Amino acid sequence: MANKRIERRTDALSKERIVEAAIEILDTEGESALTFRALAARLATGAGAIYWHVADKNELLAAATIDIIARAMTGVASDAEPRETIRAIALGLFDAIDAHPWAGAQLSREPFEPAMLLVSEGIGGQLQALGVPEQQRFNAWSTLVSYILGAAGQNAANARRLPRDTDRSAFLGSVAAQWARLDPEQYPFVRQLATQLREHDDREQFLAGIDLILAGIATVR
User: Fold this and answer.
1) Residue 186: is its pLDDT beyond 90?
2) Of the four listed, 17, 67, 166, 211, which is most buried by Cβ atoms within 10 Å?
3) Which CATH number fits domain 1-54: 3.40.1190.20, 3.40.190.10, 1.10.10.60, 3.40.50.2300?
4) Of 58, 68, 57, nearest to 23 (Cα)?
């Protein structure tokens, strides 16, 4: 039986194309599926050609993450008021992590990687523009970044725990109904949340949290 001929790419392989292919694998199959063998097959090349541009999987994940985060940050208007710019950065990151949950996991796992520097500089620059005193900037930055990554990551994780064909409204309605039936003496607050749980919008709720943090930051200006 004749050996099957392996078609090889004839165009020059670039790091940008490698990162693009890695993102495709991460989005469709998850982080565990990202191997240099899978990447080489997708790019129709040998693993050696990939190693010429990327040293290992950690470097590849870092490059893919910074690509996603840079795109989210680039879409933010540069002439808006600092408060609105922070809200735009936060929402851009929320949407990016919702679409690419592995990127959120990578940011949490590697807090000092280049992608995180982009986030920190973007948020920090606006805190300076808001007039936050220097001695309070670290706390303000830490609170905002922790909330953005935590809430965005949790939202992405929740969405992917449900089967693909699950109707979100029906699911939340079912949970809200369960909460409404709880013992009113033991769970008075949770019962009050039932209606809001059924009707809430994830992005609006996320931005409401950003606004609460910004309101608190305004008190130290």
Assistant:
1) yes
2) 67
3) 1.10.10.60
4) 68
